[in-house]
């Protein structure tokens, strides 16, 4: 099934989606994975579902401004979001230079001028400007993600944590350790994973 049909299934409404760029991203992913082992997804269908569609499932929560993708690996969810939201400036952050090499390759190949690729550990990362949104798909537990994200988050910003079925326990623990934050959990559209949710974390205003 092509990406355009898959996007219809999750009711993706972003106008003028560059489907050709997304398809090229899939092909390059498959090519690189044969040599460099950048992810566990090795067939075309899996890459489309779990790297492209899963990354874009959070589209209703994506805003304008600056977004940081923590633990992006080879560039997910950041690269698909950068392709579909060209007005959004995205920083891809990871400590693995091998995986980030793929992200840099795609950045150059698709001429993604709204993407920065940063090789660093989140604990030592010191950006010049704070971020309006911080996202992660599989970085760490929710409480840990909040801890490392808050110092990099603008006052009115929000954290988007893409999570699965064990989210309730993580939310309970996070509300104990981060009482200055509110957490809302939303189901997101997905093709095969009925447990895909996004936790939206914001600072509680005094």
What's a concise summary of this model?
The chain is 37% helix and 24% strand. The chain is of the alpha/beta class and 206 residues long.
Layout: helices, strands, pairs:
Layout: H1 3-9, H2 19-36, H3 44-56, E1 65-70, H4 78-84, E2 88-94, H5 97-109, E3 115-119, E4 131-136, H6 142-149, E5 153-163, H7 167-177, E6 181-187, E7 197-203
Parallel strand pairs: 1-2, 1-4, 2-3, 4-5
Antiparallel strand pairs: 5-7, 6-7
Helix pairs in contact: 2-3, 2-5, 3-4, 6-7
Cα gyration radius (Å): 16 Å
Strand elements, count: 7
- Class based on secondary structure composition and strand pairing: alpha/beta
Indicate the percent of residues in helices.
25-40%
Overall mean pLDDT score?
94
* Distinct helical segment count: 7
Strands of the widest sheet, in order across it, are: 3-2-1-4-5-7-6
Question: Any idea what the shape is?
Answer: globular
Tell me what portion of residues adopts beta-strand conformation: 15-25%
Poorly predicted runs are: none
How far apart lie the N and C ends? 49 Å
What pattern of helices and strands is seen along the backbone? HHHEHEHEEHEHEE
The main sheet comes to:
7 strands, mixed
């Amino acid at each position: 099934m092509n990406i355009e049909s898959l996007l219809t299934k999750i009711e993706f409404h972003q106008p003028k989606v560059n489907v050709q760029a997304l398809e090229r991203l899939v092909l390059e992913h498959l090519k690189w994975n044969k040599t460099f082992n950048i992810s566990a997804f090795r067939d075309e269908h899996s890459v489309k579902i779990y790297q492209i569609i899963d990354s874009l499932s959070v589209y209703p929560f994506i805003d304008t401004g600056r977004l940081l993708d923590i633990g992006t690996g080879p560039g997910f969810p950041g690269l698909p979001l950068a392709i579909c939201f060209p007005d959004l400036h995205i920083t891809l952050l990871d400590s693995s230079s091998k995986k980030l090499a793929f992200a840099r390759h795609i950045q150059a190949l698709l001429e993604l001028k709204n993407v920065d690729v940063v090789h660093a550990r989140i604990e030592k990362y010191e950006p010049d400007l704070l971020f309006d949104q911080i996202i992660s798909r599989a970085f760490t537990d929710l409480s840990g993600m909040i801890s490392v994200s808050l110092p990099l988050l603008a006052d009115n910003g929000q954290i988007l944590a893409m999570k699965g079925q064990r989210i309730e326990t993580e939310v309970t623990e996070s509300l104990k350790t981060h009482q200055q934050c509110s957490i809302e959990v939303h189901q997101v559209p997905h093709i095969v994973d009925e447990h895909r949710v996004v936790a939206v974390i914001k600072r509680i205003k005094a």
